[in-house]
Amino acid sequence: MARRKDHTPEELTELVLGRVLEFLQNEPADQLSLRKLAKMVGYSPGTLINLFGSYSRLILAANARTLDIIARQLVDVMNHTESAEEKLHRFAQAYLSFAMQCPHQWRALFEHHMEEGEELPQWQWSRIERLFEMIEQCLYELNEGSLEADRHEASRVIWAAVHGICALSIDDKLFAQTSVGGDSMINSLLTHYLSSWKRD
């Protein structure tokens, strides 16, 4: 078993979170445990708890890395797309693509629950809000007269609908003809929803 001094805290953090994301490439999060992860990185379970505070916080930190990956993809779309409507379409397609390519990593974002009495830390809230702010900015560009509260709600409506399509696509539960897939359903959803949003 490796000793604590074999890695700095920063190096060990990177090692552990890297192993979690590697594991999620092939296995669901519920197949991972603190003991299994400790064995994978060559440290004791107690060392990992001392580093992250709890196993729940460790998984939350791994999920933060996933949100960072998604955010980078959306920023890339922002930087290479002119139209606000096209940005929203490409945002949604990037989200679907990530969910299909990394289903266990994507699901881990939503299957994780904080321990009783714990609140989601600010560093995670900030990541979540950043993603919604990108959507809200696009909605503002499409309808500058819209209210902030309406944009806040609309961003969640869009995400919830796209998220549902992603979840059903991963599980192959769309119950549609082969020509109807998650990508075409997302395009249909946004085309109709945004058409209404621009008229309001």
UniProtKB/TrEMBL annotation:
<feature type="domain" description="HTH-type transcriptional regulator MT1864/Rv1816-like C-terminal">
    <location>
        <begin position="88"/>
        <end position="177"/>
    </location>
</feature>
<keyword id="KW-0805">Transcription regulation</keyword>
<dbReference type="InterPro" id="IPR036271">
    <property type="entry name" value="Tet_transcr_reg_TetR-rel_C_sf"/>
</dbReference>
<dbReference type="InterPro" id="IPR025996">
    <property type="entry name" value="MT1864/Rv1816-like_C"/>
</dbReference>
<dbReference type="InterPro" id="IPR009057">
    <property type="entry name" value="Homeodomain-like_sf"/>
</dbReference>
<keyword id="KW-0804">Transcription</keyword>
<protein>
    <submittedName>
        <fullName>TetR/AcrR family transcriptional regulator</fullName>
    </submittedName>
</protein>
<dbReference type="Pfam" id="PF13305">
    <property type="entry name" value="TetR_C_33"/>
</dbReference>
